[in-house]
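ok, trying the design again with the full structure, not the truncated one.
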């Protein structure tokens, strides 16, 4: 009995040693190569978005880069950064790479080594977004520890994936997690030499600031200066706070939709939302509203069919959720690496129902792809709602708009009666990879990664100012100036109201 206990104790010790306790622990190149091989095999076989924005040669090239990077890598963090670069290169906002639970906990327990202040992109500059620090509020960051701000962003953008080659959406990740990203890329630092310029000054100042812990950084982020303006993006909204309707004057109203996460078509929350839409569009029709502002600037997506139902009130054409959708497999591949709490031998049974759902929905086989057919709800031809709004629509968008929200926005943008105001979205105009996510775990590093497997072509109008590998481009690019930022001014809403006044005079 004692021998068994000794073996168990030894096994636990080996297990704990096998899995890194810190992201900075040594990790062998042999394990890196094995995991890189598995990672690529899974992406090629299962990820329909692998070649959506990149050619086969480009993908092969970045994997050759990864192999060379391994030759000069020695830590777990080095390997995580390689995998993060590969993940980001594909160009899908639904791609994700994560540490195993033990390393997430390790990071969150770190007491020093983190840059203290959140930053934010304002007026084409990265500025300090904290009011009570040793660096002035709004100071433009020039360099940190010898890394110029442009070089830093090129290094850190890999941690926050967006559609295509979009970068505006990556700034959402930077404004939230800048200190963590800096730590992951450059390691823990006891202090930071920061170069900055105060507002309206060309003089570069230097200052040494001391590091803080992981949780202290996020405490500072929760007290960021811009919280008053952008907090709703981070809030866990109650059901009655996810959407609002307000009449501004006799001819203008605002429909604000902060999220499409309102349940599926069978949920009570969805039914409540549909009743809300029917009610307000009845009022819009009765009250003869001429201008409808649709504000989705904080909307990062949600569930079907909330986006499509909403669009039905804003269009005059028959439409589909997408024109084309396909996956690259008949059955979920590489089950032994599938991230599910089921023994490997039993996994075929555990995922059997998912395979049946895939096969039922994606039943048209062509050129080693499996397409949705006409029987799918996503290809159903839908008609405009009888209470459809046919007058002027003013759509407010931002870099936070993604997934179902960007699909909705792209469809609204295609309407001839729509004006689009704001900043480029992180979600694509013509399509994206979405809907069904697969989750895998690499055998040696235990890094967890996921991607959405349905390659979607959205039912949108081709427009000369919209690009295949970018987010949705607004008709009027409007963002905060530095003074707007200091005053928490909603410059985009003010612009829209002024545009409505100008249009009413014509």
């Amino acid at each position: 009995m004692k021998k068994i206990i000794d073996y168990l104790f030894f096994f636990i010790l080996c297990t704990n040693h096998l899995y890194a306790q810190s992201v900075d622990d040594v990790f062998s190149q042999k394990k890196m190569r094995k995991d890189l091989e598995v990672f690529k095999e899974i992406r090629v076989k299962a990820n329909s978005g692998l070649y959506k924005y990149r050619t086969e040669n480009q993908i092969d090239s970045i994997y050759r880069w990864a192999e060379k990077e391994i030759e000069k890598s020695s830590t777990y963090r080095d390997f995580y950064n390689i995998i993060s670069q590969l993940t980001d290169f594909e160009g899908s906002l639904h791609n994700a790479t994560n540490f195993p639970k033990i390393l997430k906990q390790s990071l969150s327990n770190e007491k020093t080594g983190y840059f203290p202040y959140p930053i934010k992109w304002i007026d084409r500059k990265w500025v300090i977004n904290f009011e009570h620090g040793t660096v002035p509020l709004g100071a433009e960051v020039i360099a940190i520890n010898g890394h110029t701000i442009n070089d830093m962003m090129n290094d850190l953008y890999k941690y926050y994936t967006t559609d295509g080659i979009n970068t505006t959406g990556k700034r959402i990740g930077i404004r939230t997690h800048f200190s963590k990203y800096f730590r992951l890329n450059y390691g823990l630092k006891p202090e930071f030499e920061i170069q900055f310029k105060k507002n309206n000054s060309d003089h570069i100042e230097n200052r040494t600031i001391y590091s803080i812990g992981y949780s202290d950084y996020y405490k500072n982020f929760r007290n960021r200066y811009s919280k008053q303006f952008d907090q709703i993006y981070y809030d866990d909204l109650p059901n009655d706070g996810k959407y609002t309707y307000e009449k501004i004057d006799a001819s203008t109203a605002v429909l604000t939709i902060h999220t499409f996460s309102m349940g599926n078509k069978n949920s009570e929350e969805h039914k409540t939302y549909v009743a809300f839409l029917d009610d307000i569009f009845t009022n819009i029709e009765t009250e003869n509203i001429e201008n409808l502002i649709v504000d989705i600037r904080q909307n990062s997506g949600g569930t079907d069919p909330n986006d499509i139902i909403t669009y039905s009130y804003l269009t005059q054409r028959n439409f589909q959720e997408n024109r084309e959708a396909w996956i690259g497999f008949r059955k979920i591949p590489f089950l032994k690496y599938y991230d599910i709490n089921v023994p490997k031998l039993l996994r075929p049974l555990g995922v059997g129902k998912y395979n049946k759902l895939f096969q039922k929905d994606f039943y048209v086989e062509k050129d080693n792809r499996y397409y949705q057919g006409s029987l799918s709800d996503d290809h159903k031809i839908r008609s405009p709602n009888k209470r459809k709004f046919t007058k002027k629509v003013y759509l407010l968008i931002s870099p936070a708009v993604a997934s179902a929200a960007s699909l909705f926005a792209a469809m609204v943008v295609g309407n001839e009666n729509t004006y689009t105001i704001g900043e480029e979205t992180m979600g694509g105009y013509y399509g994206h990879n979405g809907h069904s996510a697969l989750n895998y775990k690499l055998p040696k590093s235990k890094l967890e990664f996921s991607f959405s497997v349905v390659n979607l072509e959205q039912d949108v109008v081709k427009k000369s100012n919209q690009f295949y590998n970018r987010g949705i481009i607004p008709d009027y690019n409007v963002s905060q100036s530095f003074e707007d930022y200091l005053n928490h001014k909603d410059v985009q809403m003010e612009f829209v109201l002024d545009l409505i006044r100008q249009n009413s005079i014509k």
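Keeping the full-length input from now on. Confidence is low (pLDDT under 50) at residues 1-18.
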